[in-house]
Design brief:
With 458 residues, the chain is mostly helical. Helix content is 73%, strand content 0%.
């Protein structure tokens, strides 16, 4: 997909260009999605008592919340190729707000399970976030842009753990009981999701030069016909073994993050006998590392690419994922609260850097089937979360044992990163594109230019 005038720098405090509006609204939308997707997680101790849920049933709801996202992420990537990220995001946010508010109607395990299953579709927002930032930024900064938009979005996993108990407490001050309180609390993220969807439609566009419909009308993009359609794009991506290697890699980083988002609060609540607010605050620290950690993963990916091209990006991905697995194994052994928190932060750092490193590689796998590649790899994160969920639904397996097993799996999965390779021609082409974008950026600096636009990339 030939998109021209991509930005070759990130002007963090700018909202005047389509590139930076997409940057800021995409991370904010993904951030808000976490309030709908995992808003119930820090309140699960209350929900457990209200609905009489067992550990196995809680585990099943955790699996449900991420399972449906696998399918929706595959579809949403193809939808982005067809209608563009602007419409795809707006519709996902507005429709996704409905089950978030409707979860308060659940009165049994079965209805609660169905609600969490429906809400899980919101998790497909990640694919659109990565797709949209890839449309807007040139090779010299695309790793940083992708990592930052995703990381600040993932930050929602941390702020949700902290803010939702506060919303719940605020609702309780109205004089309602806990059974009503958690239901009313979930209305708040639903309303915000809907409003964010409207804002996304109003203030963004698909690409630097306009929306996909406009680009196709001008002949700058191929038409969305069967010849260039979603099925062909998906099959092209699905036949590439590198895509499936990254599927496993992302399962071992983002899948782990989703799992921790689901179990962290109740883990600290039960293991260290903490109150709900304190457990939520500590669990939130894991997600708050996204403020900078995932961005670091993308920054290092771009830096490794400057010195070693696409091979450098892959090497960095392996290092980050391997260190994540080692840190997770260490976290699983902790019995003292303070030490457990410290190791959790180190573990969180590498989890999110590995995520940023993954999507520092994704844009270069197949640029003509970008949506399909991003969708498949993104779905891997949820597949990993589903697989990990089975470790934490068993009554006979402790949380510590489950975490240790998960750490071993991550170390093994890191080897898949080394299976991602590129042809010498691809390496040379991307070195040239990187140098061209970086050179134009330096030229703009030396002449004091303020233009946001960069080189065209394929």
């Amino acid at each position: 997909m030939d998109i021209r005038h991509k930005a070759n720098r990130i002007r963090l405090f700018s909202f005047s260009t389509p590139q930076m509006r997409a940057f800021h609204l995409s991370w904010f939308a993904f951030h808000i999605c976490f309030f709908g997707w995992f808003g119930i997680a820090p309140l699960m101790a209350v929900v457990r008592d209200d609905l009489g849920l067992t550990k196995t049933q809680i585990g099943n709801t955790i699996i449900a919340s991420v399972a449906i996202t696998i399918v929706v992420r595959l579809v949403i990537g193809l939808l982005c190729d067809r209608v563009g990220p602007r419409k795809a995001y707006a519709w996902l946010l507005c429709l996704g707000s409905l089950p978030v508010m409707a979860i308060g109607l659940a009165d049994s395990f079965e209805t609660f399970l169905l609600a969490r299953l429906a809400i899980g579709a919101i998790g497909a927002s990640f694919v659109i976030t990565q797709y949209h930032s890839t449309m807007m930024f040139a090779p010299n900064v695309v790793g940083t842009a992708n990592a930052t938009t995703a990381g600040w979005g993932n930050l929602g996993g941390g702020t949700t753990q902290i803010v939702m108990p506060l919303i719940f407490a605020g609702v309780m001050m109205l004089g309602v009981n806990e059974a009503v309180g958690w239901r009313l609390a979930m209305v708040v993220p639903g309303i915000v999701l809907f409003l964010t969807g409207l804002a996304y439609y109003r203030f963004t566009q698909d690409a630097p030069d306009g929306n996909f419909s406009e680009l196709r009308a001008r002949g700058e993009l191929p038409p969305a016909t069967r010849e260039h359609g979603a099925g062909r794009s998906f099959m092209t991506a699905a036949r590439d073994l590198r895509v499936w290697a990254l599927f496993v890699v992302y399962a071992a980083c983002f899948g782990v993050e989703l799992t921790i988002n689901n179990i962290a609060a109740i883990y600290y609540f039960d293991t260290f006998s903490l109150d709900l607010a304190t457990a939520g605050l500590i669990a939130g620290l894991f997600g708050l590392m996204n403020l900078f950690a995932r961005t670091l993963g993308g920054v290092f990916s771009d830096l490794f690419a400057r010195n070693a091209g696409l091979k450098g990006r892959v090497r960095w991905l392996f290092i980050a994922l391997f260190c994540e697995g080692i840190a997770l194994i260490g976290f699983a052994q902790m019995q003292t609260l303070a030490i457990a928190i410290g190791i959790m932060l180190v573990f969180s750092l590498f989890v999110q850097m590995a995520e940023g490193a993954t999507f520092g590689v994704v844009p270069f796998i197949n640029q003509k089937a970008l949506g399909a590649v991003a969708g498949i790899v993104g779905a891997g994160g949820n597949a990993g979360a589903v697989a990990a969920g089975f470790l934490f639904r068993s009554e006979s397996l402790s949380y510590q044992q489950g975490l240790f097993t998960l750490g071993i799996a991550v170390v093994l999965a890191s080897l898949c990163a080394l299976a991602v390779r590129f042809t010498p021609e691809m390496e040379a082409a991307q070195r040239e594109a990187y140098a061209r974008a970086a050179g134009e950026r330096e030229g703009q600096r030396s002449h004091g230019e303020s233009s946001e636009t960069g080189v065209a990339t394929g």
